[in-house]
């Protein structure tokens, strides 16, 4: 028995570059900031998650990254607001990429933790979401970063802190 639903549906199509196509040796010869700048300028592909989420901008500078994404219906949870996982992904991206900008050639990192505080609901009416990540402290083996997510009106909607483990190629 076939069931029909009275609900309106939408379709979304997007493309991405398959990960792993970048020469890892050449990548490790660049600093983290150079890597992110190359992604921004189109010299290297950006990660597929950016296309999946609909990220529209990534602006890196030393110790800081700004990521932008308009809130959209495909980000929604069943209750009619942007899913906390989408918000967490934006916060994680900004905080971790801020750490990424501090990497010397031959270094890489991985996230150890992410602590998120949701401060107000996010909906399509929230408009362009802007997430700024900054490095709080960078050591030899770990880095602490934070990220703040604001809506189109500039209101703070979520905040996160993240610890990253710094490694050298060959460790």
From TrEMBL:
Gene3D superfamilies: Hotdog Thioesterase. Keywords: Hydrolase. Signal peptide: none annotated. Residues 80-157 form the Thioesterase domain. Transmembrane segments: none annotated. One of its GO terms (molecular function) is fatty acyl-CoA hydrolase activity. The keyword Transmembrane helix does not apply. Pfam families: 4HBT. Belongs to the thioesterase PaaI family. This is PaaI family thioesterase. It comes from Nocardioides alpinus.
